[in-house]
Design a protein that fits this description.
The structure holds two protein chains of two kinds. By secondary structure, chain A is mainly α. Chain A contains 17 helices and two strands. The chains are: A mainly alpha, B mainly alpha.
């Protein structure tokens, strides 16, 4: 709890990231795939003498520039704001490890945006050959952004050879081990295919606006050509997906296989449910594109194309959720738990106190932490260790999850979370609850009151501790 | 060249005539064509609902064992949870898409002459679907469905003279019990399908007879400028694509948000704090509650019920007020009336959920 907490009632802070991230992925992947789509389309038009494509491609590149340059960039920055607030410790870890990667990424972004603008503004103003080169240059830089960010995203689940150096102070010397981690290449393949697919779908959305009566042949060609961009993903994604799964650590893959084995009983994990949604939406998308766009390209309407985009949104959202769920209970696998606690700090926090190590809890609260459990202290524990994934009344509501349990039963669950034994079902997807017995009793009292409206079991009494708590007078508020 | 099997089948079934008809049938294509798919989507959800309903029938036991059998379907039978969840979600999505279909029909003025009976049959289908939902809601006999049905059956009791009699008849006694479940079950799987399917066939038959309606903006165009596409294969293929999208939405809802089952109903327990009807009854429930507050006593609820029914009658009779293409002021009034209905339904539904106590 080195940072202040961010409470988003009902929705939960995780969903704030989720909503921004899904929109961002839908647009940023288009930024990469579109980068390839535009020069390829232009090259085809030049090669086959289809000058009638040019006005459409110019208009499409304007749409592309506005969508990716404004909404893509805004949501990208939005993700940074959100993850910095929700998981500051995790964000800090990523920044410390990948500062060079991010510096590179920002430079590449700048070049990418400049090239996208130059590409649009130079249609019919410079020779075709040079214009096309601008397009290829954009394609290269936009793919480079994916090359970099893909390493950071996959690092969180498969830090691989970097892990032994974690916390040693030597991390910057192992930058490439972190970036080119085991999940890197299959994920790069998956994302590149998704980018191409999304480029085709966004292009269909755009070209569906062409009047099929007056410009029937043009619409037919452009829509069908765009529809083809879905095919590589449809064919190759399963291969990359299986490869990716094999790079996921066994313990995390077990979450999915456990889910598949219990699917009939309906007790299967959320990660398996979302994986099934991914498989289903991806598999049916090709069918929808075939029926809507390939068979009747001239009558493809905007709403039908948006229907395909809606499916893509479902596929993207569920895939990104699977990636997030698979990482549980970590933010960085084997290094940092999802509640912002480092693995190496667990014993220290259990002995010295979780709140006592926080600069954001007042000394007055910490002073009582050695002997007297209080709901106020419990609230701080809740904010520090539960709020990143749970809310009281909304998403993953603790009032709902703990309903029908009295104080004693709530205490038993907290003890199980605190002990975090390997055979505990919770230890597979929840981080350990850290803190002294007094702090955990405080959390129990807080949750008991929140769930049952009052304390429903006796308050534990703790003997006075002789040694002073690690709280010191330099804390804010002391 | 047709295969010998196709020739053999055609000779006996005569399906080529049907195919010929489908190929020649034309469907209008314009900027509002999007709304044409909602009828098909509703039918798709209905089909899924029938299929999963038949599967549930294999294990469901009405009467006093209702809760245990649903519990067994949900937790013991392999994929029982999925079938139950798909059934419940398809029912809800069917009603949602039927609402979209009805309002799009309304605002595109598709109820005008000579389509009055399409409009009437559509409304009857929607009302029957809602009764399907109401009768199905009780069948698991968990605490929420028990108490919500208790409240729901209390509503007709405010009708003077016959109200209590109606409530008792439906309940099968003064209280909700295994008899009520048996009655609701019979209503759900025998009576309602027997009413629904003929009306559905009439509705579909009338669409074949009159064809897809054209919105006023298309009617204003000269006939030569109106676009059409063949029903088969073009429109049928697009319908299929829309069904695929609908299937994805259904699968997402059923897998990620499996339909819950609460604790068994216990008449001696206090009603749950967050007792409420299904979302499609929330608006009427909220209106009755508001009238009950404004006008104390049973008369308040009766007045609310009366007003709601009056609105429904006006809604049904709209084709008579706005019958012609050039209805002028009546056409505009009908549009405003439709907007008011949408506004009231949305506002009271959202309001109903907003004031629910957060107990879970």
């Amino acid at each position: 709890m080195n940072y202040p907490v961010w409470d988003v009632p009902f929705l939960g802070s995780g969903w704030v990231i989720g909503i921004i991230a899904i929109i961002h992925v839908l647009i940023s992947h288009f930024a990469v795939g579109g980068g390839l789509f535009l020069p390829m389309a232009e090259a085809k038009a030049i090669r086959e003498g289809r000058r009638d494509w040019f006005p459409q491609l110019e208009a499409f590149s304007k749409f592309f520039l506005v969508l990716t340059g404004v909404f893509g960039a805004m949501t990208g920055v939005g993700i940074w704001f959100a993850i910095g607030l929700v998981s500051p410790e995790g964000t800090s870890t990523l920044i410390h490890n990948f500062v060079f990667a991010w510096a590179t990424e920002w430079v590449v972004f700048l070049v990418e945006l400049t090239l996208a603008a130059a590409y649009y503004y130079t249609w019919n103003r410079i020779p075709d050959k040079i214009h096309l080169r601008l397009g290829w240059a954009y394609a290269g830089t936009s793919w480079l952004t994916l090359v970099i960010i893909n390493g950071i995203l996959t690092f969180q689940l498969t830090p691989g050879a970097w892990l032994p150096f974690a916390g040693s102070g030597d991390e910057p010397f192992h930058f490439f081990q972190a970036l080119l981690n085991p999940g890197y290449f299959p994920s790069l393949g998956l994302r590149t295919l998704a980018c191409m697919s999304l480029a085709g779908i966004w292009a269909m959305v755009f070209f569906s606006g062409i009047d099929g009566d007056s410009e029937g042949p043009l619409k037919e060609k452009l829509v069908r050509w765009s529809a083809r961009w879905v095919v590589p993903a449809y064919v190759l994604m399963p291969v990359f997906f299986v490869w990716y799964l094999f790079t996921v650590p066994e313990s995390h893959r077990a979450l999915m296989s456990l889910g598949i084995s219990t699917i009939g009983a309906g007790a299967f994990t959320m990660v398996t449910r979302m994986s099934l949604v991914t498989v289903m939406t991806s598999a049916t998308m090709a069918g929808v594109v075939f029926f809507f766009a390939w068979l009747s390209p001239r009558t493809l309407s905007r709403s039908q194309a948006l229907g395909v985009l809606f499916l893509a949104l479902m596929a993207t959202g569920s895939t990104e959720s699977v990636r997030e769920f698979l990482r549980k209970p970590f933010v960085v696998n084997g290094y940092l738990y999802s509640n912002g606690v480092h693995i190496k700090d667990v014993d220290r926090l259990n002995a010295g106190g979780y709140l006592a190590s926080s600069p954001w809890v007042s000394a007055a609260v910490v002073a009582t932490a050695s002997t007297l459990p209080t709901p106020e202290m419990g609230k701080r524990m809740f904010e520090g260790q539960c709020l990143a994934c749970h809310t009281l009344d909304g998403y993953r509501s603790l009032r709902r999850l703990l309903s029908d349990r009295d104080g004693k039963a709530i205490g038993n669950i907290l003890t199980m979370l605190h002990d975090h034994k390997p055979d505990s079902p919770y230890s597979k997807f929840m981080p350990p609850l850290v803190g002294t017995p007094v702090e955990i009793e405080s959390l129990r009292q807080y949750l008991d009151r929140a769930v049952n409206g009052k304390l429903t079991s006796p308050v534990a009494v703790f003997p006075p501790v002789v040694s002073a708590s690690p709280a010191d007078s330099t804390k804010p508020g002391s | 060249m047709r295969s010998p099997l196709a020739r053999w089948l055609d000779e006996r079934l005569g399906y080529s005539a049907l195919l010929e008809l489908a190929t020649h049938k034309q469907v209008p294509e314009h900027k509002y064509s999007f709304w044409y798919y909602w009828g098909g989507i509703t039918l798709f959800f209905f089909t899924v609902m029938c299929f999963t309903g038949v599967l549930l029938l294999l294990y469901y036991r009405p009467g006093d064992e209702a809760y245990q059998s649903v519990r067994s379907i949900t937790y013991d039978i392999q994929f029982g949870w999925l079938i139950r969840s798909t059934h419940s979600w398809s029912a809800n999505l069917m009603i949602a898409s039927a609402f979209v279909h009805m309002f799009s029909t309304f605002f595109l003025k598709a109820y005008r002459r000579p389509r009055e009976f399409l409009w009437f049959s559509g409304i009857v289908l929607l009302l029957l679907a809602m009764v399907f939902g109401f009768s199905g809601y009780l069948l698991p006999m968990d605490d929420l469905s028990y108490f919500a049905t208790k409240v729901g059956l209390g509503i007709p009791a405010v009708i003077p003279m016959v109200g209590p009699w109606i409530s008792n008849l439906v309940r099968g006694g003064p209280d909700i019990s295994g008899f009520t479940v048996s009655r609701f079950f019979a209503l759900h799987v025998v009576v309602l399908p027997a009413l629904f399917i003929p009306v559905l066939l009439l509705h579909l038959g009338l669409i074949q007879k009159h064809g897809m309606s054209l919105p006023p903006s298309e009617l204003d165009k000269p006939e030569g400028k109106r676009k059409t596409i063949p029903f088969f294969p073009n429109f049928a293929m697009k319908d299929l694509a829309a069904w695929l999208i609908a299937l994805n939405v259904l699968a997402f809802c059923a897998a990620v948000f499996p339909w819950p089952l609460g604790p068994a109903a216990d008449a001696l327990k206090p009603a749950p704090m967050d007792i409420h009807p299904e979302w499609y009854f929330m608006s009427s429930f909220e209106v009755l509650k508001l009238f009950g507050k404004w006008i104390p006593g049973e008369f308040g609820e009766f007045a609310g019920l009366g007003l709601f029914n009056l609105g429904l009658v006006l809604w049904v009779l709209v084709p008579f007020f706005d019958a012609e293409r050039r209805s002028g002021a009546w056409a505009r009034r009908a549009t405003w009336f439709g907007l008011a209905v949408v506004g009231i339904l949305l506002f009271t539904t959202i309001w109903g959920y907003a004031v629910l106590p957060a107990v879970r």
